Amino acid sequence: MLGGAAAWPLWVRAQQATPVIGFFSPASPEDLTDRLRAFRQGLGAKGYVEGRNVTVEYHWLEGQYDDLPSLVADLVHRRVAVIVTPGSNPASHAAKAATATIPIVFGVSEDPVASGLVAGLAWPGGNATGIYSLVADIVTKRLALLHDLVPKAVRIAVLVNPDNVQTTEATLRDIPEAARAIGWQIQVLKASTSREIEAAFATLVSDRAGALFIGPDAFFSSQRVQFATLTRRYAVPTAWASRDAVEAGGLLSYTTDTMEMFNHVGFYTGIILKGIKPADLPVVQSSKFELVINLQTARLLGIDVPQTLLAIANKVIAVDDGRAHHRRRSPPRRAAAARS
Q1: Most buried among 74, 309, 314, 323, by the most CB within 10 A?
Q2: With contact defined as beta carbons under 8 Å apart, do 134 and 286 qualify?
Q3: Domain match, 303 and 156 both
């Protein structure tokens, strides 16, 4: 019978040397400077400093998922200590499909119980835990905010990326009811290339859609400059799940606070490296949300932003000099059970 270290679980043995974290992001490193800092702060809260007593191996998907299964399989083969997937539904599911032993810390925009990532929120079971946002609530609120800005619109276009299967399914599942609740008709458009984005704008303009609701997707975010150019060219109000896209020229975004999500993923990763099992760490629901409005874009589109929206916005990109004005936030909150 095996004894000693050889009999320990893989995820425990991986900690005996400098642990390696496999990090998957749907975006590019240039897009995540602040959020990576939040992730590292979360790790640091449990005593782990990248380059000193932990190694992070980054994989930047940049909205392309074809190589994802092989990348995850390589990490599993090399028995990394933890796989983290903040902000990536596809990477979270790929990791879950590839290993039942290596811990996974996710940040997802879908119900992890319904999608099969965990058995329950309070007691996840298995090897995965993390944080998730309430997509249906966010979609409803984002649509309502867009309606406040373009109240005369009767029909809007919804753009999704068919290559991002889980996120697209979630968006198209939640948005019809939310649109009906405010009296909007929706037109679904799909794009997974730059050329298809151009075609989508041409279609929605031809069909006289009053605004464009852009589904959450890393490829779309990476093309935010293209979207900003098309927004100005065709005078189309756009609502995003990404504040970066609004900073580039989109009209508004409403989503969970991604800083909170990255910080929590780092914090849970540190706890797991200390020896706590993912099954014993409850999945946390996002507790903070942020509204970003670009007043420069609103002016270009001839939209008067109500003072009621400006009063609740977390960030406003001002008309006068382009500088963004931030509102002070409290530190991210974490589940009480995770503070041990």
Answers
A1: 314
A2: yes
A3: yes
Tokens of 40: 């590292």
Provide the Cα torsion 277, 283, 284, 289; round to 10°: 130
Number of domains in the chain: 2
The enclosing domain of 145 has a CATH number of 3.40.50.2300
Burial class for 331, CB neighbours closer than 10 Å (0-12, 13-18, 19+) = exposed
Distance CA 193, CA 182 (A): 31
Claim to verify: residue 102 and residue 221 sit in the same structural domain:
no
Domain boundary pick from 287, 303, 328: 287
The model's pLDDT over 180-226, given as tens digits with 9 standing for 90+, comes to 989 999 999 999 999 999 999 999 999 999 999 999 888 898 899 99
> Whole-model pTM above 0.85?
no
Q: Does 240 share its domain with 299?
A: yes
Domain assignment of residue 91, given as a range: 4-133+257-287
Residue 155 shares a structural domain with residue 233:
yes
Structure letter (DSSP) for residue 330: P
Burial 129-154 (b: 16+ CB within 10 A, else e): bbbbbbbbebbbbbbebbbebbeebe
Q: Which residue has the tokens 């629901």?
A: 285
Residues 78-117: pLDDT tens digits?
999 999 999 888 899 999 999 999 999 999 988 899 889 9
Check whether residue 207 and residue 239 sit in a common domain.
yes
Q: How far apart are CA 267 and CA 46, in angstroms?
A: 7
Token pair in block for residue 193: 């290339």
